[in-house]
Amino acid sequence: RPRIGILTAGGDCPGLNAVIRGVVKSAYRMGFETLGFEGGFEGLVAPVRCRQLTPQNTSGILTLGGTILGSTNRGRFGVTVGIDQKLSLPQPLIDAVRQTFQEMGMQGLICVGGDGSLSIALELHRAGLPVVGVPKTIDNDLSCTAFTFGFDSAVNCATDALDRLHTTASSHDRVMVLEVMGRHAGWIALHAGIAGGADVILIPEIPWTYEGIIAKIEDRRRMGKNFTLVVVAEGAALPEGVTVAQETIQTDRQTLLGGIGAEIAERLLPQIDQEIRCVVLGHLQRGGGPTNFDRVLATQLGAHAVRLIIQRRFGEMVCYQPPQIDSVTIAEAVGELRRVPPDSSTVAAARAMGISFGDSLE
Ligand code: F6P
């Protein structure tokens, strides 16, 4: 049987195993054997770490969180790409990958990753290697695809947290601040905020102020609602004149420690006559199994990636452009992150529900 390879790179997310299974099953039916490389791109170079994946040994992984192949967003391929950084792989590393392709007799490699990992896939493609991409991230911030798998699962987790915070907040007449992930984008906060009935949503794309939050809390109290749910995206910039570069540093720090939620809680406390608590949801959003939506999306993307390899459409990335599963060039997809348009219909719907974005618009 001819061979294709697959690897999962960058931060994990629910649905990776569904893609792996989708690839292995459809490749098998098309007469291909699949090799799974372990630990992201690291598995491609000495000491090469890979194993044969079969419909039998990938059976039952559809619903499993994480990735059976392992992943890394560190290491020799330096997948820690900030939005301002440019990648350039050292030639010896590219040569080592080429050697692995030859030794393993691989017809193509499917790289499942986010913006940083797909940039690496693009470099390998430009060096003449036959790769195709599959987009993944809980942040939903990749261009050219309406949704990435992992996002729906993360939103589900954040929504569940808001549902739980709702009951305790209302019992104690408290303000609850929930900090969610999303890196430089506010998609998780926006969608979970709407789904979980938050009162205030703070995202990096819409400048907000403490006065804006306080106005909403007071407004609610005047209406007899003595509790308020605030959901804040980890990348939500500090309100006063923060530059994109500072925001990048702040977001990386956030990844380690959390922080914007606690900072908001601390700053609000002396200004409101109410108790306040903060919860950082963190990696709970990335753990656990995928939702039904993510299972279906991931399966479709995996099957389509195999089709791209068979059609020798290298350098392309599968994508979801409802109602179609389609493909674009990886070059089109990486580089520019997709952020929440402040004038989007989703933001407008939230505002129509009376949700405040901490700005002066209601
Ligand atoms: O990109 C996914 C994401 O979970 C972001 O939301 C978050 O900022 C970051 O990865 C956390 O990364 P790490 O795996 O380094 O903790």
Automatic annotation (TrEMBL):
Cofactor: Mg(2+)
UniProt domain Phosphofructokinase: residue ranges: 3-309
Any Gene Ontology biological process: canonical glycolysis
Site note Important for substrate specificity, residues: 116
Pathway recorded for this protein: Carbohydrate degradation; glycolysis; D-glyceraldehyde 3-phosphate and glycerone phosphate from D-glucose: step 3/4
Keywords: ATP-binding, Cytoplasm, Glycolysis, Kinase, Magnesium, Metal-binding, Nucleotide-binding, Transferase
GO cellular component, one term: 6-phosphofructokinase complex
Pfam families per the UniProt record, alphabetical: PFK
Binding-site residues for ATP, renumbered to this chain: 11, 74-75, 114-117
Annotated active site: 139
Positions contributing to substrate binding: 137-139, 174, 181-183, 234, 277, 283-286
Amino-acid positions noted as binding Mg(2+) in the UniProt annotation, renumbered to this chain: 115
Family classification: Belongs to the phosphofructokinase type A (PFKA) family. Mixed-substrate PFK group III subfamily.
Name under which the protein is recorded: ATP-dependent 6-phosphofructokinase
Gene, per the UniProt record: pfkA
